[in-house]
Specification:
The structure holds two protein chains of two kinds. Chain A has helices at residues 3-28, 57-76, 80-83, 90-105, 107-110, and strands at 33-36, 41-44. Chain A is mainly alpha-helical. In chain A, helix 1 (3-28) runs antiparallel to helix 2 and helix 1 (3-28) runs parallel beside helix 4 (90-105). Chain A is built from five helices and two strands. Chain B has one domain (2-151). In chain B, 79% of the residues lie in helices and 0% in strands. Chain B is elongated, with a radius of gyration of 17 Å. The chains are: A mainly alpha, B mainly alpha. The interface between A and B is large, with 38 and 34 residues.
Chain lengths: 112, 155
């Protein structure tokens, strides 16, 4: 498979896996690291708040980006017969479902 | 002061991004079939692929700046919104931050599908991703604008 044929496969699988993992990260709090804005310190993994709030958003991005990149690279190495089965629709259907799930997870903000 | 300057730049980049993605979304959904004349027709008659690189660059820059000023929001504004008992405002921002990440996740695919020459195999996904990103950008812009009106930086 040529490099310009591998790129769409990488991009589709990246969108798919990154979206799924990000929603899981938000739901179950799988942050690669925690940022403590009051002290400006970073800590590995999920840490409790200290001297102010703890921010997990950056850690969720890191977790999902790494998972997406790893899965995308693996998919790009697939033989052409398998790679052709990766549907481009996955790149937009998955994040759309992700949006619906995130709205559901955060529904209490709006049903107050 | 630095945060306020960064917030203004973040807002200006968001305006540019909003214009670019809206132009592209309108041109793919409501293509012009006759020579452009009136303002609305000219708005629709742009070359959609020409916007892809600008959208990617502006989206990434806007997201990075948003990430840089986010701790200040978390420390000084979110707390006030909680004290003012405004859960919808907080929830809207939570959605904004999550939607921004999902937008980043689809950005490589969006860029890939808009590469010239346009591949027919990606035609539907190209339109869907453009509309998805347009929806995210519009939501994030409006929420950011409204939140800034409630409790802007430096207020």
């Amino acid at each position: 498979m040529k490099s310009n044929e591998r790129l769409p496969v990488f991009a589709i699988v990246f969108a798919l896996v990154c979206s799924i993992v990000y929603v899981l990260c938000v739901w179950k709090n799988f942050a690669l690291f925690t940022y403590h804005p009051a002290s400006g310190e970073f800590g590995l993994g999920v840490q409790k708040a200290r001297d102010g709030p703890a921010m997990y958003w950056y850690g969720w991005i890191a977790t999902s980006a790494l998972a997406g990149a790893a899965a995308g690279l693996l998919a790009a190495l697939l033989p052409p017969s398998l790679a052709q089965r990766v549907s481009p629709a996955l790149a937009w259907v998955t994040p759309l479902i992700g949006i619906a799930i995130l709205v559901y997870i955060l529904r209490n903000y709006f049903l107050h | 002061m630095t945060t306020t300057v960064l917030l203004i730049i973040h807002g200006l980049l968001a305006v540019a991004l909003l214009g670019a993605i809206t132009h592209q979304a309108v041109s793919v959904c409501w293509a012009v079939r006759q020579p452009a004349g009136a303002f609305v027709t000219r708005f629709r008659a742009v070359s959609a692929p020409a916007y892809a690189n600008a959208v990617v660059l502006l989206y990434v820059l806007t997201a990075i700046l948003g990430g840089v000023i986010y701790p200040d929001y978390r420390m000084s504004i979110r707390v006030v919104l909680e004290q003012l008992d405004m859960p919808m405002a907080n929830g809207s921002f939570e959605l904004k931050e999550h939607f921004a990440v999902l937008g980043l996740a689809v950005l490589p695919a969006y860029w890939c599908f808009w590469r010239l020459p346009l591949a027919q195999a990606y035609a539907r996904a190209r339109v869907a991703l453009t509309l998805l990103i347009a929806g995210i950008v519009w939501w994030n812009f409006l929420v950011g604008h409204v939140l800034n009106n409630i409790r802007g930086f430096g207020s």
